[in-house]
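User: Teach me something about this protein's shape.
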Amino acid sequence: MSGTTQPIQNRYDFVYLFDVKNGNPNGDPDAGNAPRIDPETGHGLITDVCLKRKIRNFICLAKNDPKTEQPAPGYDIYVKEKAVLNQQHERAYEALEITEDDEAKNRQDDARKWMCQTFFDIRMFGAVMSTGKNEPRKNCGQVRGPVQFAFARSVDPIVALEQSITRMAVTNERDLAKEKTMGRKEIVPYALYEAHGFISPYLAADTGFNADDLALLWQALTMMFEHDRSAARGEMAARKLIVFEHESMLGNAPAHTLFDRVKVVRQDESRPPRDFSDYDVAVDSADLPSGISVQEML
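Assistant: First, the predicted structure itself:
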């Protein structure tokens, strides 16, 4: 079970580069599910929630027993398809055998710790588990997670292409005379995205996020697109994972100064990029601040 090792003792900041070909990496439901775009610059955007969803989905695959279809102890996922969150909270009170006579409100901290030990995504990202404030057995408090992502942004402005598609079948009998139905799909021909991530050892000490959990996070970031294929998303791939490790818990340098050391440059400005090979990625590792080490995991 997770928790057999001590929480991580170092701060980490990382740069994550991934790309998309002929797909929609993160549609905006308020814009007809079109690719998200910064209207002022034309750069593409991908939410932190989208990235976290893919990590959660990978953990479900990596840590579920195919025979029992149950997660390994300590690696259940709190936010998953068809999950009822208040029912997840009640599991903590049932597992700890907290009764009404125990005054559930006074045992909330015990329930909170159980949730951190049981659910990998709570231990990693945190969660608001106070959705049942008026029902003590459905209130497990709140957790700030040690792993946080910023929105990903494309290196260059993107162009979303709207494509018409046809389907030979129809949905309703009344449409038989149409013979086929029409639809539309928006794609990004190509875009390279950059996301920044942050890992706090202080918050890891609170949730129990340990070295095994960290290794699983790195594995998820390198492999999660391989198990997230769909026609809508086209071809997505992890390209670079550049991790800056601090010697101390407090940190040895501001994150933005480390991120500035990662340079992504387009080779030929005269034509639009259509492949990762159209870019040069360099990490300036010379004269790193004292106490900082850098590792390229991809």
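Now, about its shape. Residues 48-63 form the longest helix (16 residues). The first strand starts at residue 12 and ends at 23. If you'd like, I can walk through any region in more detail.
User: That's plenty for now, thanks!
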